[in-house]
Amino acid sequence: MRIVVLGGTGQVGRKVVENLERRAQAVVVASRATGVDARTGRGLDAALELADAVIDVTNAPDLSSHAAREFFEDTTTRLLSAEEKAGVNHHVVLSIVGADHTGEEGYFAAKGIQERLVRSGSTPFSILRSTQFYDFARRIAEWNTTEDTVHLPAKPVQPVAASEVADKLVEVAMAAPLFGAVDMGGPEQMLLPEFVHRVLRADNDPRYVVADDEITPLGFNISSEMLLPHAPSVHALTTLDSWVREESRSKVSRGR
Ligand SMILES: NC(=O)c1ccc[n+]([C@@H]2O[C@H](COP(=O)([O-])OP(=O)(O)OC[C@H]3O[C@@H](n4cnc5c(N)ncnc54)[C@H](OP(=O)(O)O)[C@@H]3O)[C@@H](O)[C@H]2O)c1
Q1: For residue 132, which atom of ligand 1 is closest to its CA?
Q2: What's the CATH number where 10 sits?
Q3: Which atom of ligand 1 is nearest to the CA of 95?
């Protein structure tokens, strides 16, 4: 089986590629860094030659509403048409929990559009929707810091280790297409300020984190259940504490 990982140089894409390499699976790493641009189509047909499945883990370089929407519309349309030409049997896309519950604006809505394009395409498909990766707490903190304080609404989240999402994507790609979506979250629910606080403490980051329900941390109002997985869903096993321990072990082994 030959699997193309589009976005295979990114945060979750690298972990997908590592998993496939461990299995000695034929894998093509595709991204602009390897000469494949899903927006312009450069290198796409060659990358998809003889491919059985594609795992799409690309992300927009600019996550703002309009830019993300254009990115996912352009890349998904081009990719699905190249897959049809190449006879690809399975399109697997990583989406985000809540993408089907938002309005017209924001990054989540752009992912909703990506999902709809995949559903209406002719390639058999599977959609895996994940909650926020543990590492993503750092980006959330970056976007919501005023002076030395991070302001976040007290909404429930169920973050997950990106490595387990990568493993699940491979498992899904190697099985029959779902023709539907599955949600995936971590083993614990917590409030968003607690999540970000725990990651910042583990990083020895001195910023305070305070609950502030007026804040729209991802660019839109989060309803109370929106960031939680809905059925059918998969529960990953790695807790935030064990992810933090693993992160510090790998920092030590990298000599930092
Ligand atoms: N972060 C989270 O918490 C989270 C949660 C749920 C779902 N997700 C989803 O996970 C996916 C991947 O996120 P990530 O954080 O791993 O992203 P990332 O680290 O930013 O990686 C993005 C990848 O896309 C590639 N890419 C960008 N533009 C491209 C283009 N025009 N053509 C081909 N490849 C292109 C990049 O490589 P080049 O720069 O070399 O092109 C890179 O390999 C996203 O779709 C996101 O919605 C993320």
Answers
A1: 3
A2: 3.40.50.720
A3: 7
Q: Classify residue 33 by its DSSP letter.
A: G
CA nearest neighbour of 35 among 4, 77, 60, 3: 4
pLDDT for residue 256: 56
| Nearest protein Cα to ligand 1, atom 41 | 32
Number of domains forming the structure of the chain: 1
Cα separation of 161 and 170, whole Å? Answer: 15
- Ligand 1 centroid–CA 68 distance in Å is 11
How large is the average pLDDT for residues 63-81?
96
What residue numbers bound the domain in which 193 lies? 2-253
What average pLDDT does this structure show over 68-86? 97
Give the tokens for residue 68.
């993300």
What is the number of residues in the chain?
A: 256
Indicate the pTM of the whole model.
0.96
Report residue 220's pLDDT band, with 50, 70 and 90 as the boundaries: low
Find the 8 Cα to ligand 1 centroid distance in Å. Answer: 8
pLDDT tens-digit map of 224-253: 778 999 988 999 999 999 999 998 888 888
**CA–CA separation, 101 vs 47, rounded Å?**
34
